[in-house]
Known about the structure:
The protein is of the alpha+beta class. The chain has helices at about 20-30, 40-50, 55-60, 80-85, 120-130, 160-170, 175-180, 200-205, 215-245, 275-280, 305-310, 320-325, 380-390, and strands at about 30-35, 90-95, 115, 140-145, 150-155, 180-185, 185-190, 195, 200, 250-255, 260, 265-270, 280-285, 295, 300, 335-340, 355-360, 360-365, 370-375.
Amino acid sequence: MDTVRRDRLSTYGYERHTSNQLTAVAEAGVLFRDTTVSGSWTWPGHAALFTGEPPWVSGARYNEAPARPPIGQMRTDLPTLAERFSEAGYRTASVATNHLLAEDLGLTRGFESIHAGGNDTSTIAKFRETAPSPDDRPTLMLLNLLSAHAPYEAVPGIPFADEHIATIRDAPEGSTLAAMRIDNEGSLSLDPGEQCGDFRCDLKWTGGAMELTPSELDAISDLYDANLVLLDSTMPDAIEIWTTHHPGGIVVVTSDHGELLGEHRMLQHRFAIWPELVEIPLAIVGPGFPAGTKTDVPVQVRDLYPTLLEEAGIAEFDWTLRDAMAGTPRPGPIQAAAWPDPANAQLEALSKPWALHREGDVGVIVTGDHVFQLTPAEAPASMVEAARALLVDPATTSLRSRRSGT
């Protein structure tokens, strides 16, 4: 589920019913209640899922100016999940709405069948076509759905979207809502990435060059929630397609990053590291994942890499998500980082890299000279330095604990 932040899901206690089907999935298996992704947008988020490595190891991140290209390619010497499963005799397929998962961009290296683009309706149709096995091989499939991503559609029939439709439709030319408005044959959406004069609306607001009223921010926030409902409504079809053809298989539902909806005077994602951007959902259903299980052990999305390889019998590791289910703490800290897009370097708030480092209940976010405490307990200086080290002295090997197979 692309661009889904955990705290806006009813599965995790949000007051609106934004994720009824995810709740059903969680009740059928294991719900991880404290999951962090290593980056704050599609490129590093999916690279972490595919390689088990964070962006400062995988290379999938923005490169600081004047480096070219500005977006670093995922390292080719890191074996991907798809490559590992293919080598073990699996059929591998990726079906995605997000165009960044297109074959020529390199993130989906190792998948033998790759589809990217269109919308979630066409992606589900392609998933239905691709899911049946043409041969006797077992299958690994990725399904990426983009409904929660901007532009946020004003979905008719959802009360907290309906209340904004007339306001968006009738917004006068020259207003911020009119600048963000997309009218596609009567289907209204708001996109903070549209131009507000000489600059993108979201970046212009973050930079302090324009203001958004509380009602305008409410419209953005409410439409995001409505799009979560829209995304959730596609899940029954996706799960039915998979379980029809692979009834003994494992289903994992997660996200590649979250979304900012006005918090910290930011909108959308990519530019920073905040909890709203890196705290995401994770649920697993399948043999050996007891229904109704919940765990509060802090984990990372990149922990799916060793977990799925071990579940398939391809490799063994010292620690996987099964250990988290049993209450065994994850080795190593929870970490995430983001580098600035060189195109936005002129904005002070977006000109520095960001890092998060958390151990247990204590955590810290650093950017430039700023240090933000994640909890009331103040992080020690050593934790601040460990966060900074992600940005100035990237590791060249993973801290992930292994037994064999890599």
